[in-house]
């Protein structure tokens, strides 16, 4: 916990340094305004001493007006300093927070695919937002509460020591006791703030997960089940909130009691000193003004300290992510992938998920230049794993995966993905326009190129019928489109990308027979002069493949063309083909 707090502050500090001149100006303005706050009561002391003097009224009046002019000048200067700091801070904080947002966004996207499989989207969004918001709160408290507090107490202590050593000592001793209690109490409360934040993160995750699966909640009659689960988590949060709030209430009571003790004690001491003609009437005004300042500052200090620790606890979860190294990284001086003759090789590849479930064991496979290859086999047999490893969604334990004799672990991930087009079984689209979703395959593509790709993928028909045509927003994850429409958009994106390696994971599974027939023609043209890897369960879609590979338990059991495999006696592919031709489901 302590280390995470240091790391949080370190990250903030690194981004503050980008605008250190602005930060320095803010500090100077805050210090100057705080010093003026301490200087003004000195003139108020002179004001009341002059008022109580035995001088002639015209002399008193002249002195009073002169003092008022000085106080007015100091107040105007203080007002100017605060306004300057506000305007500089608006620029400083907005830029720093934008940098932090960009930093979190960029770092998150560099995490591996397994990271996103293990974290709820809603929780990640909350962590980023709280991390950036925590910076704003911490900065405000430090610069506008803690800094003035330190300056005020140093200045007041010096002045009161000059007034009388006992006044200065009384303030110093009380202040040490007060701040020590504040510090230890806030640190004690911090651990419970962290627990509360963890519980709130669970709530955010469950909320996002349940809303995302709202159709399952209805169709599986799980409404009450979800309500019960959510209520249980909310109750946990409620108890932690109540406990931390009660801790705050307890300390507020202690704090107010200590302030009463200080006020009565200092004024009693001032009376004794006044009896001995050590203090004047103006001194009482000075002491009262300083007591009011001290109480205001200390009341703010407790809230500032609490806000700082709460903000640090809010930021901690994101800090952990930012300090978690990216699992899959480019090696130093990694080169870009260069495609020439277009060949893929798996050489003695070993891989298991989470070091528990072995998937590939000494796996070997060569995909020849411009070969169209299909992978089939039972679920869990290793088909999708082969694709994921080729895309470097995971790193292998041993062996090599080569593209044109280039080890994919030695090349940049960006250049690897640039040369591969993937059409998944269940495409997920951005909540953006259809034009933007298709253009995602090639950012520099013109509108005409996008429309041409859409026509080839046979999605131009339904797009042109939409009210806003290509400017139609598709909803979160493409929810406003049917499964078949989403697949056609994904195919259009792949057509536009035109990468040398194509991967289709049941890419036409959501299409009706007529649409599939039309799109198959477009795909046949797209597949020319490319390596094509197709994962299929409907065997009728892969009859034209150059080679069909049957994978089970991470091993190649059979391979050959469709004709070769159906002629193989007792072959697995032949059995599957006969089952599907006979109307059975694999």
Can you describe this structure?
This protein has 586 residues and is of the alpha/beta class. It has helices spanning 2-16, 20-51, 57-109, 113-117, 121-163, 165-212, 214-219, 223-275, 281-322, 383-390, 413-418, 434-439, 447-456, 460-465, 483-497, 513-526, 562-566, 572-581, and strands spanning 344-353, 357-367, 372-376, 398-403, 406-407, 420-423, 501-505, 531-535, 547-552, 555-560. It has 18 helices and ten strands. β4 and β5 (406-407) form a beta hairpin. The longest helix is centred in the first third of the chain and has 53 residues, at 57-109. The protein is elongated, with a radius of gyration of 35 Å.
SSE diagram, text form:
Layout (H helix, E strand, L loop, with lengths): L1 H15 L3 H32 L5 H53 L3 H5 L3 H43 L1 H48 L1 H6 L3 H53 L5 H42 L21 E10 L3 E11 L4 E5 L6 H8 L7 E6 L2 E2 L5 H6 L1 E4 L10 H6 L7 H10 L3 H6 L17 H15 L3 E5 L7 H14 L4 E5 L11 E6 L2 E6 L1 H5 L5 H10 L5
Helix pairs in contact: 1-9, 2-3, 2-5, 2-9, 3-5, 5-6, 5-9, 6-8, 6-9, 8-9, 13-15
List keywords for this structure.
18 helices, 586 residues, alpha/beta, six-stranded mixed beta sheet, 10 strands, elongated
Give the CA-based shape. Answer: elongated
The level of helicity is: 55-70%
N-to-C SSE string, H for helix and E for strand: HHHHHHHHHEEEHEEHEHHHHEHEEEHH
How confident is the prediction overall: mean pLDDT? Answer: 81
Number of strands: 10
Give the C-alpha Rg: 35 Å
Q: Report the sheet-strand fraction.
A: 5-15%
Largest sheet: 6 strands, mixed
**Low-confidence region ranges:** none
- State the end-to-end CA separation: 52 Å
Q: Number of helix segments?
A: 18
Biggest β-sheet: strands ordered side by side in the sheet: 6-7-8-3-9-10
Structural class assignment: alpha/beta
């Amino acid at each position: 916990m302590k280390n995470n707090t240091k790391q949080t502050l370190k990250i903030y500090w690194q981004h503050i340094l980008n605008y250190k001149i602005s930060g320095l100006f803010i500090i100077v303005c805050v210090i100057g305004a705080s010093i003026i706050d301490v200087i003004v009561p000195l003139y108020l002391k002179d004001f009341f001493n002059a008022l109580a003097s035995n001088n002639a009224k015209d002399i008193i009046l002249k002195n009073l007006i002169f003092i008022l002019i000085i106080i007015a000048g100091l107040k105007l200067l203080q007002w100017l300093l605060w306004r300057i700091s506000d305007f500089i801070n608006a620029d400083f904080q907005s830029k720093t927070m934008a940098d932090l947002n960009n930093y979190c966004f960029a770092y998150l996207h560099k995490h591996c695919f397994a990271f996103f499989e293990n974290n709820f989207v809603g929780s990640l969004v909350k962590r980023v937002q709280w991390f950036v918001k925590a910076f704003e709160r911490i900065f405000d408290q430090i610069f506008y509460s803690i800094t003035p507090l330190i300056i005020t107490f140093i200045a007041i202590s010096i002045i009161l020591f000059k007034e009388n050593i006992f006044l200065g000592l009384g303030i110093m001793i009380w202040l040490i006791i007060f701040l020590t209690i504040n510090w230890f109490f806030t640190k004690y409360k911090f651990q419970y703030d962290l627990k509360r934040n963890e519980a709130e993160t669970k709530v955010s995750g469950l909320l996002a997960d349940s809303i995302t699966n709202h159709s399952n909640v209805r169709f599986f009659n799980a409404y009450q089940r979800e309500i019960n689960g959510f209520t249980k988590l909310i109750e946990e949060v409620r108890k932690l909130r109540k406990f931390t709030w009660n801790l705050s209430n307890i300390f507020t009571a202690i704090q107010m009691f200590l302030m009463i003790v200080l006020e009565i004690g200092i004024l009693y001491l001032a009376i004794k000193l006044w009896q001995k003609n050590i203090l004047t009437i103006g001194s009482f005004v000075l002491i009262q003004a300083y007591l009011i300042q001290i109480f205001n500052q200390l009341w703010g200090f407790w809230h500032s300290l609490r806000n700082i620790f709460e903000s640090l606890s809010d930021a901690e979860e994101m800090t952990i992510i930012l300090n978690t190294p990216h699992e899959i990284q480019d090696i130093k001086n990694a080169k870009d992938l260069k495609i020439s003759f277009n060949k893929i090789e798996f050489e003695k590849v070993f891989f298991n998920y989470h070091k528990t479930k072995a998937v590939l064991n000494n796996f070997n496979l060569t995909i020849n230049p411009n070969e169209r290859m299909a992978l089939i086999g039972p679920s869990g047999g290793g088909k999708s794993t082969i694709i994921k490893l080729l895309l470097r969604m995971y790193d292998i334990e041993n062996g090599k995966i080569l593209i044109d004799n280039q080890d994919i672990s030695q090349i940049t991930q960006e250049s690897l993905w640039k040369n591969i087009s993937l059409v998944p079984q269940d495409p997920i689209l951005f909540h953006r326009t259809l034009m933007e979703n298709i253009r995602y395959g090639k950012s520099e593509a013109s509108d005409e190129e996008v429309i041409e790709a859409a026509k080839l993928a046979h999605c131009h028909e339904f797009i042109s019928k939409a009210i806003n045509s290509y400017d139609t927003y598709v909803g979160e994850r493409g929810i406003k489109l049917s499964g078949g429409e989403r697949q056609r958009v994904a195919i259009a994106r792949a057509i536009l990308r035109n990468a040398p390696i194509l991967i289709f994971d049941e890419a036409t599974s959501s299409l009706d027979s007529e649409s599939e027939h039309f799109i198959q023609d477009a795909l046949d043209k797209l597949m020319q002069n490319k390596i094509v890897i197709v994962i299929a369960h409907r065997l009728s879609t892969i009859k034209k493949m150059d080679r069909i590979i049957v994978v089970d338990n991470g091993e190649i059991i059979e391979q050959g063309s469709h004709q070769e495999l159906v002629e193989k006696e007792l072959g697995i592919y032949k059995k599957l083909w006969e089952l599907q031709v006979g109307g059975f489901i694999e």
